[in-house]
């Protein structure tokens, strides 16, 4: 079973994303910021991280770079999420594997995740929310 860590400071967004991916057979965990991230990466060992760029306590791109720079976690795929238009936020070089803007189409996000994790496309079985 593939594992996804969701780092999103909006709890309702995190719960919705988690519910959709759990329904599709993924194991998910959520964090609202960087607190507890090191332990979560060590204990949960996610295959992919869905991370908001603008977190209350930090910039998700900075966290992304820290994760990618660590030899133990550098292979984890990271998709950044943002409600801001990309030209509205300061440019921070980042080694992410993908980016989606909110509001996003959950079916498209599922396809992107399935492609990154080389999972059969199961999103066709999803019922509209």
UniProtKB/TrEMBL annotation:
Positions of post-translational 4-aspartylphosphate modification: 52
UniProt keyword annotations, A-Z: Phosphoprotein
SMART domains in UniProt: REC
InterPro entries referenced in this protein's UniProt entry, alphabetically: Bact_response_regulator, CheY-like_superfamily, Sig_transdc_resp-reg_receiver
Residue ranges the record marks as coiled coil: none
Full protein name: Response regulator
UniProt KW Nucleotide-binding keyword: no
GO biological process: phosphorelay signal transduction system
Species assigned in the record: Pedobacter petrophilus
Source domain of life: Bacteria
Pfam families documented for this protein: Response_reg
Domain Response regulatory: 3-117
Keyword Cell wall biogenesis/degradation belongs to the record: no
């Amino acid at each position: 079973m593939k594992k996804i860590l969701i780092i999103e400071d909006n709890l309702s967004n995190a719960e919705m994303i988690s519910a959709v991916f759990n329904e599709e057979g993924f194991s998910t965990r959520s964090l609202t910021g960087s607190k507890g991230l090191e332990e979560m990466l060590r204990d949960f060992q996610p295959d992919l991280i869905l991370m908001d760029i603008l977190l209350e306590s930090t910039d998700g791109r900075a966290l992304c770079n820290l994760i990618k720079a660590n030899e133990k976690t550098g292979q984890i795929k990271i998709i950044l999420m943002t409600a801001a238009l990309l030209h509205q936020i300061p440019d921070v070089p980042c080694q992410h594997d993908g980016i989606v803007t909110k509001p996003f189409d959950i079916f498209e996000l599922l396809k992107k995740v399935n492609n990154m994790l080389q999972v059969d496309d199961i999103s066709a079985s999803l019922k509209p929310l």
